[in-house]
Amino acid sequence: MTRRAVTNPDHSGTNAPVSPVLMQGFDLDHGDVNGKIGDEVKVTISNIKPDNVTNGNITATSQDPTIVSVTPDANSLVADLQLLKAGQTKVVWKSNDGGATKEINVTVTEANA
Q1: How many CA atoms lie within 13 A of 113 on its CB side?
Q2: How would you write the pLDDT of the chain (113 residues) with one tens digit per residue?
Q3: What span, in angstroms and rounded, lies between the C-alpha atoms of 113 and 37?
Q4: Contact present, 95 and 23 (Cβ < 8 Å)
Q5: Cα→Cα distances 61→1, 17, 32, 64, 97, Å
Q6: What is the 3-state secondary structure (H, E, C) of the chain?
Q7: Are 32 and 48 in contact (CB under 8 A)?
Q8: How far apart are CA 39 and CA 18, in angstroms?
């Protein structure tokens, strides 16, 4: 197996390996969600810290996709939550480097309740 080192980005001519910069945090523009079956909620990610993070990708996952489905938009900074059936679950956002995690509680009620 061949390994490739991450090289010094200052272009100083050295190939000294550098440590990846892990994500330390990010914000969501939405707190806990309370909605009815059929509702759609958009949640936007902002303020990814630090600014020079090596891998700025974040994945959103529903702990119960039968209650809430999660669809990221093309740039993965907005997640569309589709409320599918009555119940409670969490949606978890986790940086792909494992450095930061956020979650929100989601409660879905019947549409005519």
Answers
A1: 13
A2: 333 333 344 555 566 678 899 999 999 999 999 999 999 999 999 999 999 999 889 999 999 999 999 998 766 789 999 999 999 999 999 999 988 999 999 999 998 86
A3: 10
A4: yes
A5: 32, 33, 15, 9, 15
A6: CCCCCCCCCCCCCCCCCCCCCCCCEEEECCCCEEEECCCEEEEEEEEEECCCCCCCCEEEEECCCCCEEEEECCCCCEEEEEECCCEEEEEEEEECCCCCEEEEEEEEECCCC
A7: no
A8: 46
Angle at 89 between CA 85 and CA 91, to 5 degrees: 110
| Amino acid, res. 22 | L
Strands 33-36 and 58-62: unpaired
Tokens of 1: 């197996």
